[in-house]
Amino acid sequence: MTSTQLKGKTALVTGSTSGIGLGIARALAAQGANILFNGFGDAGEIEKLQAGVAGEFGVRTAYHNADMSKPAEIEAMMAFAAEKFGGIDVLVNNAGIQHVANVDEFPVEKWDAIIAINLSSAFHTSRLALPRMKAQNWGRIINLASVHGLVGSAGKSAYVAAKHGLVGLTKVTALETAQTGVTANAICPGFVLTPLVQKQVDARASADGLSNEAAKKALLSEKQPSADFVTPEQLGELAVFLCSDAAAQVRGAAWNMDGGWAAQ
Length: 264
Hints:
This protein is an alpha/beta fold. It is built from 8 helices and 7 strands; from the N terminus they run βαβαβαβαβαβαααβ. It has a 7-stranded parallel beta sheet with strand order 3-2-1-4-5-6-7, with helices on both faces. The relative contact order is 0.14.
């Protein structure tokens, strides 16, 4: 794979100002894709991020602050992408939030927000990106589901429902585009060592008097047989593969990268 396989193409990665989304955005930029960032954060830091990626990989970058729970803001972002870059060729639906509580104690507003951001936003970006992708007979839709799109965990009803829904949406999108140059697939990560998760590791190490390594193992031990984290960079490389010609017949897959979690 050369570093120009996505040259001239534009990728929108939602929730890409940190963590998994940023890892995927960087991997796509390394292949020559222009990047439209989206997500929350300090305006100055986001500007630095944009400039850094543009300079490092020689691509164009832009940012849109659409709140992914609001369809009107998603529409504005897609219009911005059309104006700035001519449209979206690679769509990575990564934005997501989490809340943990049992079903009978789950706050209704949290349920609504998780379904909106983790599931409905991917429908809105997809419906708006597909006409151009189909017209040019090339496009890649990559939905960041989760191992929770394949299995359940107590306390995570909204997240699990949304991620299962995202896998279903992916399959339908893939079937509807099956005879075109557009593919749709889902990536289903297990535990990923993002800055947010590293904070959990640090807190656990401090509270239990463990080394950082021991705290990581403790966090992973219940779910992830490899006892090792998935990295944003590994997920980025999988996204690059799904964009490649080699993956032209990978359609409607829910590809778990989860250290063996779903194999149990």
